[in-house]
Design brief:
heterodimer, A: 298 residues, alpha/beta, four-stranded antiparallel β-sheet, 10 strands, B: 625 residues, eight-stranded antiparallel β-sheet, six-stranded mixed β-sheet, 19 helices, 28 strands, globular
């Protein structure tokens, strides 16, 4: 009898192999976070003793934590995989940042538009993403294989029923697939799997003394000199960690003593806030994720 | 330190957890969303921010007078949240110390058979909700039928809202007796009935004190102890659909896939289907490296002792217990497409790791999901279920669905829209196909064509009535005749006087009309003739069928593209006038659609080109190829 993690693992590997068998030019979106780490680990297993026959793509916003970028480059090198990094030139030209332009525009230009550009540029017809159904209410209904129009739009009416383990990957020219191999994993499953398989993760997930400022009740890390300090604001050193990683000015830290995987899992068991709360882009109106998705946000 | 030891124990325990997938069936009115929301709440998978949101939503949108409304936790997309109904399949997750659970939450409304079938396809168990005030409803019967159809063996009947019936034992017992009598007819035998109140939490987690007369487990206790369905698959003979051939270098050739049934050890003999070739297992690569045995459900990569030709879609089985191979089946089909299923129309079937051409030869009957009556039918509409005979374009290895979901369940894909339009379950192979063998004949198509000194072709003229198809086809045949070519012209009207005399003009009949003509055309090609077919043939799918029967190279699609207004103005047979007066139903272009070719080999615009020059152009094109 397989355990629940073994079952999830087998299901995810099947999904990853199916894409490689049926799509012409797949890519794995690598966001450097813990979910990406698990997804990549599964891809390595799926094609052993060979390597995954697709590149990794990171859509960079220029505002990621420095430790994330270092970890990204190390990971690609360690595993011997091709890593593509895309930075939206329009974002560079306009100097888009979360302070002057707000999180909504920042996310749209760097992430949503940047992703579309990168997919079009390389002509990818399928992109793996690490999203999970337990992350948000509207994701509970997301398919494992989600079809997008040539404009990358998500149309709820075009989504196909998924029965058994049979995935319909057929599409017209220009259309593409977003594929979510971790659909049925929960946050706790992810951590347990990372623990069992000893999967390397960005050190930011573990508690350490870090310089932070408190804004609207959220702890923001001063990762570099670009964070404008408000009058009277001085960074203080606190022992914090991150439950989710993104652009550093938009990612809240939590006070924590958990400086090992075991401690993180233990902390999670008593934790009373969900991981998306740390993502400042989601905290507008309910149903906002669904709207972003229709516009092409992953 | 102590905390760490406890954590170790905890992690050990977590590793031993298994996974139960179940489906909940019922409508919002039965309190289904409340039940699931409450399970999530009570098993503490919700976080404070989600609870905060729930409190806000409950005050704004709730139906519990400002109290926590658990239903709001699970009602998903914004539009449907406003309508107060769920309209798709949502997957929820929760866990106890013993098990992780994946819940497929599907709505109970009649038009959503598609969703329920989708959710049920991966479930080990079904929870069917009954409102204690209402008893068994048509939807209860419908849900139970679909559950049995999808091969779910364990059913929990949750008799909800017992608080509104004063927790009355007799109310519960009556419902239980009635349900058991009904379920027996469906062959459902593993049934557990539980009286509960999702709203109050009675018999949800712990056995309720409000119903001392009930001695069975609570819902959660039962879910934690229910046996997993894959026990059966584990004991069945080994099956591995080959998903991907792994060739990272010249020294390694592995066959990757997920084990659909049974187990296999290194050194055992295997047989590959449909080819029948045999070998032995040299190695098994699993998720944790080399292993000695491949178990049901695992994702593995097999290497074999011999170099034999195996590709994606083949099935690796234990050598002395292989599955049957066939190309014609009886099957149950659940239709999920907006367009009806038409017998004779070509579709794609995806089964295991193989995608192939399929059509429904005979629709034997459809099933009324409420009364379970068998009804005569010529088509299947969205959400209808039927039993039919299917034909495939190549033989496949299979098991009856009742024995194995993975080797007996399939989806149906529309060739043009690429949508998933149906799902099906194989019952058994039809004997007919096994006993009717293709008779080998010594004089073949090439020999006949050589004798005539020509290359056989099928010229398929399609277009609206009055477009000029027959006129042009007639001219083309005369010219070919004059050039000494052997031809035959199949004309729509003429064929309907004989071979297709029994067919009308409904969509289903039009499909059959074209199928027969395409088959006759194929025989004529085989006879070595240049075959001209002049038929409105309004649907792309059937023209594609004709193309696949003729063979891509032999088929020329000629689109006689005349604007509707012009064709109607010509109206050589007065048919448009009749159709406009409503005396002629299903007339193409008026009240029946025409799907123009997307990439015809030739396009004739009769508003700019005379029939004579068009015919010349076609003959030139034909002879140049």
């Amino acid at each position: 009898m397989l355990t629940h993690l073994q079952r999830l693992e087998a299901e995810s590997v099947q999904i990853i192999r199916e894409v490689v068998a049926e799509c012409e030019n797949p890519v794995m979106l690598y966001s450097i976070g813990k979910d990406s780490a698990v997804m990549l680990h599964l891809a390595m297993k799926a094609f052993a003793p060979g390597k995954p026959p697709f590149p990794l793509l990171h859509v960079d916003t220029t505002w990621k934590f420095r430790e994330m970028i270092a970890f990204r480059d190390q990971t690609a090198q360690r595993l011997g995989l091709e890593l593509l990094v895309h930075v939206n030139p329009e974002g560079v030209e306009r100097g888009i940042n979360p302070f002057e332009h707000g999180s909504a525009l920042h996310t749209d230009v760097w992430k949503t538009q940047g992703l579309k550009q990168a997919l079009d540029l390389h002509g990818f017809d399928a992109a793996f993403g690490g999203a999970r159904r337990d992350e948000e209410k509207s994701r509970a209904k997301e398919r494992v294989f989600s079809i997008r129009s040539a404009q990358h739009r998500w149309d709820p009416k075009q989504q196909r029923p998924e029965l058994w383990h049979l995935y319909n990957t057929r599409k017209r020219k220009g259309e593409s697939l977003r594929v979510f191999p971790l659909s049925n994993w929960t946050e706790l499953d992810i951590w347990q799997y990372i623990y069992l398989e000893r999967i390397p993760i960005v050190p930011l997930y573990l508690a350490a003394e870090r310089p932070v400022v408190r804004r609207d009740g959220t702890l923001i890390m001063v990762d570099d000199e670009r964070l404008p300090l408000l009058p009277g604001e001085t960074p203080e050193m606190r022992k914090v960690r991150f439950r989710t990683l993104g652009c550093y000015p938009l990612t809240g830290a939590i006070d924590s003593e958990a400086d090992s995987l075991e401690a993180i899992i233990q902390e999670m068991l008593v934790s009373r806030t969900s991981e998306r709360q740390g993502r400042l882009i989601d905290s507008d109106s309910a149903g906002s994720m669904e709207k972003k998705k229709q516009e092409g946000y992953f | 330190m102590n905390a760490m030891t406890n954590l170790d124990q905890y992690l050990q325990q977590q590793q031993r957890k298994d996974l139960l997938r179940f489906i909940t069936c019922g409508s919002v009115d039965d309190g289904k969303s409340t039940l699931i929301g409450r399970l999530l709440y009570e098993t503490k998978v919700l976080f404070e921010d989600q609870l905060g949101q729930l409190e806000v939503d409950s005050k704004k949108l709730g139906t519990q007078g400002g109290e926590l409304d658990f239903a709001l936790l699970v009602d998903g997309l914004a539009a449907e949240r406003e309508q107060g109904i769920t309209i798709d399949v949502a997957y929820r997750f929760f866990a106890t110390d013993k098990r992780k659970f994946i819940v497929a939450d599907t709505p109970g409304h009649e038009q959503y058979t598609r969703n329920m079938v989708t959710g049920a396809s991966t479930a080990d168990l079904a929870v069917i909700l009954i409102d204690a005030r209402q008893g068994l409803l048509a939807q209860t019967r419908r849900h139970s039928f679909l559950v049995s159809l999808l091969g779910i063996r364990q059913v929990v009947v949750a008799v909800n809202k017992m608080d509104l019936m004063d927790y009355s034992e007799s109310v519960f017992r009556d419902i239980e007796a009635e349900y058991r009598a009904f379920a027996a007819k469906l062959g459902l035998t593993d049934i557990r009935c539980i009286p509960l109140s999702a709203l109050k939490g009675d018999n949800l987690l712990e056995r309720s004190e409000a119903m001392p007369w009930y001695q069975g487990p609570s819902l959660l206790q039962h879910l934690e102890s229910a046996p997993l369905d894959d026990g059966r698959a584990s004991r069945a003979p080994f099956r591995l659909p080959v998903q991907w051939v792994n060739r990272p270098n010249l020294d390694f050739r592995g066959f990757a896939g997920n084990v659909a049934a049974g187990s296999l050890r290194v050194g055992e003999s295997i047989r590959v289907l449909p080819s029948g070739k045999q070998s032995r297992v040299a190695g098994i690569l699993g998720m944790a490296g080399e292993q000695q045995e491949a178990l049901c459900g695992q994702a593995v990569t097999l290497t074999l002792e011999d170099e034999i030709d195996i590709s994606r879609g083949d099935l690796i089985a234990l050598a002395d217990a292989p599955p049957a191979v066939a190309d014609q089946f009886e099957a149950t089909l659940v239709w999920m497409g907006e367009e009806p299923m038409l017998p004779g129309r070509p579709y794609l079937m995806k089964i295991g790791c193989r995608t192939l051409a399929m059509s429904c030869a005979t629709l034997k009957h459809k099933v009324d999901v409420n009364s379970l009556e068998q009804l005569a039918a010529r088509t299947l509409q969205l959400n209808e279920i039927g039993v039919c005979n299917l034909g495939l374009d190549q033989p496949i290895p299979f098991d009856p669905y009742a024995d194995n979901r993975d080797t007996g369940g399939f989806i149906v894909i529309d060739r043009l829209s690429n949508q998933t339009v149906g799902a099906g379950m194989l019952h058994f192979a039809l004997r007919r196909a096994q006993n009717v063998h293709w008779q080998a004949i010594d004089v073949d198509a090439a020999a006949r064509a050589a004798l005539k000194g020509q290359t056989p072709r099928m010229l398929w003229f399609t277009g609206l009535s009055g477009a000029g198809k027959s006129t042009i086809a007639n001219l083309v045949e005369r010219k070919l005749n004059a050039l000494g070519r052997h031809t035959y012209l199949l004309d729509g009207d003429n064929v309907r006087h004989g071979l297709n005399r029994d067919l009308g003009f409904s969509e289903a009949d039009r499909v059959e009309n074209i199928r027969r003509v395409a088959e006759v055309g194929r025989l004529m090609l085989d006879a070595g003739l240049i075959t001209l077919v002049s038929f409105i043939s309004p649907f792309r799918a059937e023209r594609e069928l004709a193309r696949s029967l003729a063979g891509d190279g032999a088929f020329l699609e000629i689109f006689v593209d005349t604007p509707l207004a012009l064709a109607e103005q010509r109206d050589p047979k007065g048919l448009y006038q009749k159709a406009r007066r409503g005396e002629l139903k299903n007339f193409t272009g008026i009240d029946s659609p025409y799907e123009p070719p997307l990439a015809p080999d030739l396009r004739i615009d009769t508003s700019r080109e005379s029939a004579e020059t068009a015919a010349e152009r076609i003959v030139e094109y034909l002879l140049a190829r």
